[in-house]
């Protein structure tokens, strides 16, 4: 029986699963038919009319896929790391991360070359509370509206004139060979990405040593350390996905640098923390940055964000 990879059925998800399959084949000299990609629909794929936060949050893109893994209908799952909640079902682990793609957000627009050049009152569509808040911080004179759907759907809505501009992860555009859609790229210092953005995560059953041994060969250690830091930051801070939250860790020569941010929905109030240390301290660095933000922002302020203000 082939090794079965469970994934969502969107073109981006399929491209990511094929990348994992190709790396596994290359690492272990496997044939095409030794690995099969199994596409499935998730709750997140079915919701087209609301933000994910409104739909009830966590794990909407992963639940059905994880069930397939638990039931033994698949041997590994491939996810966009930013869609994977910090809490995993019992018995499942994130066993590998591929080398990270570019973490930056891209500005997609036919009438302006950058966010700064949009005329006052222009409509920016995005379902991400983080992107909505960061857009309003830079341009409080713009209007932000919820725009959902996979990458292709959103590009279609832009063509149709539903919105004047949208934002997408450059990583996803690149994997779809659509990076030419980007009119501009955001500076990750002033417009930080989502935790996990640009990284592909492989999830497996913790007790499946055969598959875990295979998957270990494709893990990228620096990306794994960065993701450990980012996910621990998110874990400490975010009880729900109603909080606009951003951040990015990167490892160079064994040193990890992390910057994290929590921002109000209107973009007017934000709290940031930075850490650096050895990659081995990744988890502690993320946690301590989150605690600094909790201390400076205060629980009451964070609670108002979760209530949607
Ligand atoms: N929530 C949807 C999602 N999950 C991962 C990506 C892009 C790929 C990535 O960040 O690795 C996207 C689309 C987007 O934000 O543009």
From TrEMBL:
Gene: hemC
Protein name: Porphobilinogen deaminase
PANTHER family associated with the record: PORPHOBILINOGEN DEAMINASE
Record text on cofactor binding: Binds 1 dipyrromethane group covalently.
Cofactor: dipyrromethane
UniProt enzyme class: transferase
Species annotation: Microbaculum marinum
Domain Porphobilinogen deaminase N-terminal: 3-212
Porphobilinogen deaminase C-terminal domain ranges (all copies): 226-294
Extra remark: The porphobilinogen subunits are added to the dipyrromethane group.
Role according to the record: Tetrapolymerization of the monopyrrole PBG into the hydroxymethylbilane pre-uroporphyrinogen in several discrete steps.
Catalytic reaction annotation: 4 porphobilinogen + H2O = hydroxymethylbilane + 4 NH4(+)
